[in-house]
Amino acid sequence: MIPGMEPQPPPLEGITVVAVEQAVAAPFATRQLADLGARVIKVERVDGGDFARGYDTAAGGLASHFVWCNRGKESVALDLKDPRGLDVVRRLVADADVFVQNLAHGAAARLGLDAATLCAAHPRLVAVDISGYGSTGPYADQRAYDMLVQCEAGLVSVTGTPELPVKAGIPAADIAAAMYAFSGVLAALLRRGTTGRGGPVEVSMLEALVEWMGHPLHHAMHGGTPPARTGLAHAVIAPYDAYATADGGRVLLSVQNDREWRRLAERIVGRPELGTDPAFATNAARVANRERTDGLVAGALGALTADEALDRLTGAGIACARLRDVREVAGHPQLAARQRWREVGTPVGPLRAPLPPITLPGGDAARMGDVPALGQHTGSVLRAAGMTDDEIAALRRDGVVA
């Protein structure tokens, strides 16, 4: 809270989201909405729920993917193949502001839960269809797991070493689609505030990730050749790579212009004449002589510890970073200094999680609610939708809800 600033409620307080979701793309999108104060009702299968619950048991016995993507939600377990279960979803949607689904292609339409159908019935509803490749075209029916889309979008072709393409270490296609779905919902709600009408939102993993391909895509389309895979190096800038230090660490540095190269040559490499040597004086020359350039930098940093290298590079005004593993990130001093860690409740007890990166001064911190157990809120949500205890008990007895 900023001193003197009037307190503000969470920006999405009062917004209700119903999500028939699974895996990462839709759950990560709706988690953003929950963190900003929306009520998110997560509809899961009665037989095991969202299959991401079973990906692993690394988070104290829970799946790390599920813990990451599903805090702050209410879990309702329904059998959508039973007309009574489907009727429950329709009752929930009738009172919702937003509906999100990422079922297999055609499944939502068969259930009458596609965005076009729902928005026709509920003009104020914002309804989101998240798919792998979009609702039309020759790939519409293709299975679209994250790594497959990374390949189709060309991300794998520009990631890795010259010898070996590799996928991104995070589900980049899922995350890209999730964040465009999230921003699409916010834009549609903003428009609804002006027009009174919601409407469909369509996001595909392929199209989201192709947008993220950015400069490699434009480089290939307009320059004629795709940029080469260069590992941690930059394809068109040198020196820009990670270099080993004397204590076994690795330090990445980036020289963005020739002035910085002259400082690096003088203060780190210890050879100021390299700043004006035609073989190194310009970025184009350094790229053409990348092996020699990297050798000079590697020799200088290899004589220093990682801490010494970072101190000297920072003192010389050279952009640099420590190459950290994931455990080191969890103890990052910058995140600790800014108090970016919280504990989130889960069925197995509190688990540590970073605050969401959107900070809105003047309001409370992000809501970061509990990670739900499967069907934890089925009874309370159905009662709020107008069902009696006897009706709910009958549905439980028949296996329609859990």
Helix content: 25-40%
Query: Could you state the oligomeric state of the chains shown?
Result: single chain
Structural class by helix and strand composition:
alpha/beta
If helices are DSSP runs of H or I spanning 4 or more residues, what is the number of helices?
17
The helix/strand order is: EHEHEHEHHEHHEHHEEHHHHEHHEEHH
Report strand order across the widest sheet.
Answer: 3-2-1-4-5-6
Sheet having the most strands: 6 strands, parallel
Strand content: 5-15%
Mean pLDDT: 95
Distance between the termini: 41 Å
Any idea what the shape is? elongated
Low-confidence stretches: none
In total, how many beta strands?
A: 11
Task: Kindly provide the radius of gyration, computed on alpha-carbon positions and rounded to a whole number of angstroms.
Answer: 26 Å
